[in-house]
Each structure stands twice: as structure tokens, then as C-alpha cells.
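Lab notebook page, bench 4
Experiment: in silico fold of construct C2
Operator: M.H.
Input chain length: 119 residues
Purpose: comparison with the prior construct
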Amino acid sequence: QVLLVESGGGLVQAGGSLRLSCAASGRTFSVNIMGWFRQAPGKEREFVAAISWRSSFSSTSDSVKGRFTISRDNANNTVHLQMNSLKPEDTAVYYCACNVLGTSTYDYWGQGTQVTVSS
């Protein structure tokens, strides 16, 4: 099992920045891909960004491309999401998730962290 704990959410004005972090513990040797998702009130959960734990692969959704950057710190089993030029529509609960080797889904999820962007 992999335990994921997010941090770094909060309230920020439009145009501001936040950095989310997700610390993984447990069977971290099995982690393959780490991802960030978000869910706004009344909306479905959507993909934000993902990064491979073992290669240079990363992916970012079109809605945040150029503003959000995903990065990893393998030594500390942590993935970060740097969010710049935030917009009110970025307001959501942000979830960290991981895919483990041998599966095709995101197998473990964090509890989520609230990001609120005021206009």
C-alpha cells in the first residue's frame, strides 16, 4: 500500500501562485506514475498533470499548460505542483494519486487539499 499526503493548499488572489506537495510513504518502490487531479463543486474530477517516477515523462492538461508545472523529488518520495497565474476557475480540491507497477489505473489517492482563488 502507498499512503499519499497532500499539503500546500490555501486561499490566493487571482494571478498569484501556490505550490502543492504530495508525500508518498509505504511501498514507494512500486510507484510508477504520480498524478494530480482536481474537483470543483458540482463538477467531475479532472486530470491536471502527471509525471513518471522512473523516466522523463510528464503530462499537463491543456487547461493549465504554461501555468502549472509538475516535478518530483525521488529522494524524498515527493511530487510537487507549482501553480502560477492562478485563476478563479482553478478553485477546486486537488488530489494526489499514484499508479503502481503492473496496473493501468491510479491505485492510491490522497485526502485532497483545497485551493481557492479569489477574483
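Observations: The mean pLDDT is 96. The CA atoms of residues 20 and 69 lie 10 Å apart.
Next step: discuss at group meeting.
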